[in-house]
Design a protein that fits this description.
By secondary structure, this protein is α/β, with parallel strands linked by helices. The protein contains 16 helices and 13 strands.
Length: 381
């Protein structure tokens, strides 16, 4: 964004506040003229939040693929630090994805201290404050809460977009369009968290499912119920009723997401906020109070312990087919590898020193020696 463009955008948002515009935002033509914008430019600016942060969750251990990613010593490389076939790691793909929606200074990656050997060479382009190090992996509930509290100290009214660090997307443009819609001002302004849903390709019980309200229309829809990893019979029924997979991508205002915590895990929110506000100043060096909290806190699953219990606080947008995969099991990995082009997947702005663990090589080695190609049915879920 050039200086002149930034000045016009700043004026635009001040004018929005001054005129008390309601979503969808639209300024009167005289104010657009003063801002140096035409109607199309003004509408384009309101498609994104002026203070959007992107948070990438990269603290997982990747246990489902551990049998494929273990080295000779039995050390497993978490899948977010692996590549498919010699290209960038899944984490690097996620960083490139984040850059579509925020500048580097508004991108935060949440990692785990034990994984330093993998994340440190990959995240050097980010500011030191853009890498938040957890003492250990204590579940996605704390992985989401910690960066929210850190950002809220300096930007309490911000909007945030959460991206998993270990997903593959064949058509990034399609996903980006849905992300822009979900994180736009007129979506984030609602008192709900906006989740991105993916159209199911099979009744897979390994996903969370978003069931829409019966009277809702296309677009961003209220969630009737959120069911985390239902049994096989229920998954088929949910799909018949219009349910979609929860992708793990979601957006909302910081305070709206924080409001999910007090009812079900009030002590976690209170105690972690106290540490972040009063005792922790270097996001890459967990302090003693943070160490103690993580050591004593039970694991909190963001989907099961928070989202599933509060569907009335949720809404979702279904993403058109975009070749998305969470690569969460050997079978899903096999399906993804089958769909990949023969050439390596290449990265863009983010690069790392060294080479990432190659999932395709590991997968080939794990198959029996009868010469068959990748077959999802050959592996257990």
């Amino acid at each position: 964004m050039t200086t002149s463009t930034k000045t016009r955008s700043d004026f635009f948002y001040r004018a929005l506040r001054y005129t008390k515009c309601r979503p969808p935002y639209s300024l009167p033509s005289p104010l657009l003229n003063i801002a140096g914008m035409n109607r199309a430019q003004g509408d384009a600016v309101t498609e994104r939040s002026p203070n959007l942060w992107v948070i990438i969750l990269a603290g997982g251990d990747g246990r489902p693929l551990g049998s494929l990613t273990a080295d000779a010593r039995g050390v497993c490389t978490p899948k977010q630090f692996c590549s498919f076939n010699g290209g960038p790691s899944l984490l690097q793909m996620s960083l490139d994805r984040a850059l579509r929606h925020a500048p580097r200074e508004r991108i935060v990656v949440v990692v785990t201290r034990a994984h330093r050997r993998w994340w440190e060479p990959a995240l050097w382009p980010l500011r030191r404050s853009g890498v938040i190090v957890q003492p250990s992996n204590c579940g996605t509930g704390l992985g989401v809460l910690l960066p929210l509290l850190v950002i809220a100290k300096s930007d309490p009214t911000a909007s945030v977009l959460f991206l998993p660090s270990d997903h593959y997307v064949a058509n990034e443009d399609v996903l980006s369009q849905s992300i822009r819609q979900a994180s736009a001002l007129h979506a984030a302004d609602f008192d709900k968290v906006t989740l991105l849903g993916m159209l199911p390709t099979a009744p897979d019980p390994g996903f969370g499912y978003l069931a829409p309200a019966t009277d809702s229309r296309a677009g961003i829809r209220p969630v009737q119920s959120f069911i985390e990893k239902p049994d096989s019979d229920l998954t088929a029924q949910l799909i018949r009723d219009g349910g979609v997979w929860n992708s793990g991508i979601f957006a909302g205002l910081i305070q709206v997401i924080l409001d999910l915590y007090p009812r079900h895990v009030p002590g976690v929110l209170r105690n972690l906020k106290s540490v972040v506000d009063d005792a922790w100043f270097d996001p890459q060096a967990p302090c003693a109070p943070l160490e103690s909290l993580y050591a004593s806190c039970p694991a909190v699953d963001f989907s099961r312990d928070l989202l599933e219990r509060q569907p009335a606080r949720l809404q979702f947008l279904t993403v058109p087919p975009c070749g998305w995969s969470d690569v969460g099991t050997p079978a899903r990995l096999a399906t993804t590898l089958q769909a990949l082009p023969s050439q390596c997947v290449r990265g863009a702005p983010f690069t790392s020193s060294g080479s990432a663990f190659n999932l395709e090589t590991a997968f080939r080695a794990a198959l029996t020696a009868d010469g068959r190609r990748f077959a999802p049915e050959a592996l257990q879920q």
